[in-house]
Design brief:
alpha/beta; 5 helices; about 20% strand
């Protein structure tokens, strides 16, 4: 399975990838992008099976990334890994097509609970 991890923080991308491994979900091909714009470019070449994205990023936010992706006809499962997981943001993300929110700070169990049905070990 191919997984795209999009976050403007390199350290956070590393934490997300490490946590996926701790959850037993890390044996996949993973590509990283620094923002939604670069994520859109990566989708064209990498063709991920799952996208994990932060909400707040420069150039193109996570929700802008998701909306642009869906507008292009792409239906790749998309999950936010963000500190913006509550209330209106969650409703906006789900309405745009997100499969879930993993809220920072997160645990390996949160990854398994949210992604276990989408990602095989």
């Amino acid at each position: 399975m191919k997984i795209l991890v999009t976050d403007d923080s390199r350290a956070m991308r590393m934490i997300v990838i490490r946590t996926m491994r701790q959850a037993g979900l890390g044996k996949h091909e993973i590509k990283e992008a620094e923002n939604g714009r670069l994520g859109m470019e990566a989708v064209k070449d990498f063709k991920p099976d799952l996208i994990l994205s932060d909400w707040n990023m420069p150039e193109m936010t996570g929700i802008e990334f998701l909306k642009a992706l869906r507008a292009s006809g792409n239906t790749t499962p998309f999950c936010f890994v963000t500190s913006e997981g509550g209330g209106d943001k969650a409703e906006e993300g789900v309405a745009a097509g997100a499969i879930g929110f993993i809220v920072k700070p997160f645990t390996a169990e949160a990854f398994m609970d949210t992604l276990g049905s989408v990602v095989s070990a």
